[in-house]
Structures are given as C-alpha cells and as structure tokens.
Amino acid sequence: MYIIPAAIIGGLLGSALAKRLPNHVIQKLFIIMVSGIILLNLYNLSQII
Known about the structure:
Elements: H1 3-20, H2 23-48
C-alpha cells in the first residue's frame, strides 16, 4: 500500500539530490540506506522467529 508512493517520493528526492551532491556522497548515502534496510529486515526476521 505504501510501496508505490514511497518509490515515487524516493525517485523525486533521489534525482534532486543527484543533481546537487557529488557522486561519492550519493554512493555513501546509498550504502547507508541499503544497510539500514537490511538491518530493519533482520530485526523483523528476529521478531518472527
């Protein structure tokens, strides 16, 4: 239910940030976000088990 709006907002924010920030900052931000998502998924998995 929230996936489509989150993808649209993320795409708009991502393109705006990509125009303003250097590539190395975008790469670090991407790594931080992916790491956060992985940690959240691991936490949710631990709650199920």
